[in-house]
Design a protein that fits this description.
3-stranded antiparallel sheet; 458 residues; 5% strand
């Protein structure tokens, strides 16, 4: 077995009319962030249009759903009416209900599946990318399990039954190829269990499922950013701390939420697009055709193959940088030497690639991530800028899914929140206790108050 980069594959990948192009998503995809502004999701309906698309994908249906006036006309043409007035009244009812769907307002889980994607075709691409990311990260290998959880919600209604008449019933088999990397198996298992817990209360599920989905989307993206920057030290089971503040709290420079929240994530995003390109280069090798090989995956394969294989691969990285990358871009690269380790080779490759990617690409890529923060997690911190925050609704949703028994000890609640990607400092924890106590979700084990418990919300 030869352990080298596949120069032929890479040349086809990078060459566009004789010019070097910093492409991505051939053999590796990291984040669902477009570099073209028109494709950026605007979240005009919150996250509900993406959630609706995820539900359709789970059920093997077409991601594009039609809720145009033509659908109303089609349904009306199939009905029998006593007179013209009843026909017009029913048509008016359908149009008004479809308007509610366009606004993301639903009263049943079945209606959620009918919420359309953005009308703008370019923006729709960004939404579909988010759908695929979520599906591949949390659901792909658990489709039947998730279907069973959602099937328990027998909440069919007149609108859903009527619109079903006009549905395209063609089924997408196997939900297409896997695009993204399910990097965090423990987080994925928490998601499945939390969905099951959430589904125990149908009303709560309907009102919070989009918030639940956007929370897990953001946590997965944030952790991918932090862990990918750790290169071969990527940990699939240990989430890295990301601190939030509660929406009504006052931010301050000394708070963890200022130093280890949005500011940290945006700093980690600086030049991150280079990973999108580099992992495609590194994944085009002679010893594996597996998609989404991250730095730690490649290192593990080479360790299994032995020191000679690892040395051969390291040499091929430096050979490619010198003979191809430098020649095509005129960007200086580091030279190979016997003391170069695999980690050093990866670092040198990333360093060279970062120099070639334009500030415009980096900026547009980062803005797509910031758009999610601004819509769902932003608190304006004055001179501190944007601070990651949780609304009271978001907080209560997280508390609800974290408690699977009748109650949970307060100190264990903080650990459960961290398992779901949320860290709070001492001051925020005090605010959480105040809220839960005010809503009568707190109880003490004894008059001494030695142990405090949080009661189940669901």
């Amino acid at each position: 077995m030869v352990y080298q980069l596949d120069f032929n594959k890479i040349n086809k990948f990078i060459d566009k009319s004789g010019k070097y192009t910093f492409r991505r998503r051939s053999v590796a995809s990291i984040l669902p962030l477009p570099t073209r502004e028109p494709e950026r999701a605007k979240f005009d309906r919150g996250f509900s249009s993406i959630t609706g698309g995820i539900i359709r994908k789970i059920n093997g249906k077409n991601l594009i759903v039609d809720t145009s006036d033509a659908i109303v006309e089609h349904i009306i043409s199939m009905g029998k009416f006593d007179d013209e007035e009843s026909k017009n009244l029913f048509a008016h009812y359908l149009r008004e209900q479809i308007k509610e769907l366009h606004l993301g307002r639903i009263t049943s889980l079945n209606q959620l599946e009918r919420i359309p994607l953005a009308e703008n075709e370019e923006e729709r691409k960004g939404e579909i990318d988010l759908i695929n990311f979520f599906f591949d990260t949390f659901i792909r290998d658990e489709v039947e399990r998730v279907q069973e959880i959602l099937k328990k919600q027998d909440d069919s209604d007149l609108l859903s039954d009527v619109l079903e008449l006009s549905t395209d019933h063609s089924v997408t088999k196997n939900n297409g190829v896997e695009i993204y990397y399910s990097a965090f198996p423990t987080l994925k298992e928490h998601f499945i269990r939390d969905l099951e817990n959430l589904a125990s209360n149908t009303s709560f599920l309907i009102n919070h499922i989009s918030l639940f989905f956007v929370h897990y989307t953001f946590v997965a993206m944030s952790q991918l950013i932090l862990q990918t920057n750790k290169m071969t030290r990527f940990s699939q089971d240990e989430l890295l701390p990301v601190y939030y503040i509660l929406q009504w709290e006052k931010p301050a420079t000394w708070r963890n939420s200022s130093r280890q929240g949005n500011k940290m994530l945006i700093g980690e995003m600086d030049g991150f697009f280079a990973h999108e390109h580099a992992l495609n280069i590194l994944g085009m090798n002679t010893f594996s055709d597996k998609r989404n090989q991250f730095y730690h995956d490649i290192k593990y394969q080479l360790e299994e193959a032995g020191l000679e294989a690892e040395r051969e691969y390291i040499q091929s990285i430096y050979k490619w940088m010198k003979e191809i990358y430098k020649e095509k871009t005129n960007i200086p690269v580091r030279e190979y030497s016997e003391d170069k380790t695999l980690d050093m080779a990866f670092d040198d490759l990333i360093s060279a690639i970062k120099k070639g990617i334009s500030s415009e690409v980096n900026s547009r890529y980062q803005k797509a991530f910031q758009a999610i923060i601004s819509k769902f997690f932003r608190k304006h911190g004055g001179s501190l800028g944007t601070i990651l925050s949780l609304s009271q609704e978001h907080l209560l949703m997280l508390v609800a899914i974290s408690i699977t028994d009748e109650r949970i000890e307060l100190k264990k609640l903080w650990k459960e929140l961290e398992k779901r990607g949320v860290w709070l400092d001492y001051h925020s924890k005090e605010e959480v206790v105040k809220v839960l106590d005010k809503l009568n979700y707190m109880e003490k084990k004894s008059d001494s108050g030695d142990a405090q418990y949080v009661k189940s919300i669901l």
